[in-house]
C-alpha cells in the first residue's frame, strides 16, 4: 500500500496516483486507488461517480461503512478500482478529531477488507492533517512527487518529519520508498538543477524515470481517462508506463 503525499498542492500527486495505477493495471496487476482528497480529482480522472450521495471514503472513515461498499470498478479498465471521495470528505478533517483511534480509521477499514489486490495507491490531499495521517498509518510506503520548479524542496522537511513521527509512534514499518520528479521541462536549466539536487539528497529513492511536462497529462482527466488510454504514444504516457515498471521491479527485489 503506497501513500502518495506532499502537502503542497499542484505537484502531481493525483496525476501520478492515477496514471501509475492505470499503468500497473494495464500490466496485469489489480490496483485500487483510494481518493483521499475532498476535491475528488482522482475519482474524476478515473470516471468514478463522486457527486451527490454516492457512498465515499468519508463514510468509511467517519461512519464505519465497509470499504467494499464504496469501491467501484473503473469503466473499461479491467483490474483497476477506485474508492471515491465526495466533498463530504472536507468535513472529515474536523470530525475525525473527536473519534476514537482517529489516526487509524483507514487502517482499520483495510483490515476488514479482503479484496485481492496487488497495489493500493492512496491519493492524499494537499495538507498534513488527519486525512494524510490516516494514509500514512495505513500504508507500507510513501511516494513523494516533487515538481521540478522553484522551491521544490520547500516544506519537504516537514513532510519527512511527519513520516518519521508516524513511523516512531503509529506505523513502525512505514518507509519513504519512492520520489518521483514531475513536470520536468528539459529545456530549462532550473529543472535539471532541481533534479540533480533531489538525486544528490535522496539517492536511489528517486525513480530513474522523470515525468515530463506534457499537456496530454493535464487533458486526460477531463475525459475520465488515464493518459495511457487518452494518448498512448504521448511522452507522459510512456513516462508513467516506465515509472510503473520501475515500481513493479522494485517490489520484486
Ligand atoms: P496535486 O494532486 O499534487 O494537487 P495534480 O496531479 O492535480 O497535483 O497536478 C496539478 C495540475 O498540473 C493539474 O492540472 C494536472 O493536470 C497538471 N499536471 C500534473 N502533472 C503534469 C505534467 N507532467 N505535465 C503537465 N501538466 C501536469
Ligand atoms: Mg490532487
UniProtKB/TrEMBL annotation:
Positions of the AAA domain: 1-175
Chain ranges passing through the membrane: none
Pfam families linked: AAA_31 (PF13614)
InterPro entries: AAA_dom (IPR025669), DNA_Partitioning_ATPase (IPR050678), P-loop_NTPase (IPR027417)
Task of the protein: May play a role in septum formation.
Family in the record: Belongs to the ParA family.
Entry protein name: Chromosome partitioning protein
Organism, as annotated: Nonomuraea muscovyensis
